[in-house]
Design goal:
Elements lengths: L9 E5 L4 H12 L3 E6 L2 H13 L4 E5 L5 H15 L4 E4 L14 H26 L9 E6 L12 H23 L4 E8 L5 H15 L10 E4 L6
Parallel strand pairs: 1-2, 1-4, 2-3, 4-5, 5-6, 6-7
Helix pairs in contact: 1-6, 3-4, 4-5
């Protein structure tokens, strides 16, 4: 199937310096979007953006701590200043810390809550403020949140992570409802990648993100799309 065309779109990808985030940034750029790689890892993030530029893409790096409200405000402002707008936000940044409930470490759970839940919630907040009518971008758009198969599958050792990714699912659905009822013209969806990263799984996940970011999914909002090979069947 032909990849959707995102020419003219401006996209911000959190956790975009490496791993799935870098793959999402590359896929969006391949589809024609101008991309901001947003991450706390400055050297790696700049290198990822530079690598995208070498392919002919429009790409830049912006430092972003997803747990910090002011950092989000600066990053979105820089993105709009650099790219002339903001049409797509992919909330990919996340932390995985495994452990049995009997051995639960409160500090580790708080870290996952901060990055996976608060980071996603702030991403939605600032996407809405930028994209809604009267916002500094103001043309509507799409938010794609990266949840996980852990949100739907009960496995030992991932209770804290599973709880945070389940929260991402709920945030997605409430955000989609709010955006619809308040006339923001912003669609909000999420994907559930598999628990074990593979080359094929990563490619299929990035394809799903590009689809949900594009006009091909213009009638899709409040949805969660599993990309995990039937793990939950």
């Amino acid at each position: 199937m032909r990849r959707p065309d995102l020419s003219g779109c401006a996209a911000l990808v959190t956790g975009g310096a490496r791993g799935l985030g870098a793959g999402v940034a590359a896929a969006l750029a391949e589809a024609g979007a101008a991309v901001v790689v947003a991450d706390v890892r400055e050297d790696l993030g700049r290198a990822t953006a530079d690598a995208l530029k070498q392919t002919g893409a429009i790409a830049t790096f912006v430092r972003l701590d997803v747990t910090d409200d002011a950092s989000w405000e600066r990053a979105v402002g820089e993105t709009i200043g650099e790219l002339g707008g903001l049409d797509v936000v992919v909330n990919n940044a996340g932390v995985w810390i495994s452990g049995l409930l009997a051995d639960l470490d409160p500090a580790e759970v708080r870290r996952m809550l901060d990055v996976n839940v608060l980071g996603t919630a702030l991403g939605i907040k600032h996407a809405f403020r930028a994209m809604r009518p009267g916002g500094p971008a103001g043309n509507g758009g799409a938010v794609v949140n990266i949840a996980s198969a852990a949100a739907t599958v009960a496995l030992p050792g991932i209770a804290g992570y599973s709880a945070t990714k389940s929260a991402v699912d709920r945030l997605t659905r409430v955000a989609a409802t709010e955006a619809g009822k308040l006339g923001y013209d912003v669609r909000v969806n999420c994907v559930y990648p598999g628990l074990e990263p593979t080359a094929q799984g990563t490619r299929l996940t990035t394809d799903a993100v590009v689809f949900l970011a594009s006009d091909a999914a213009r009638f899709v909002t409040g949805a969660g799309l599993p990309v995990e090979g039937g793990l939950d069947t």
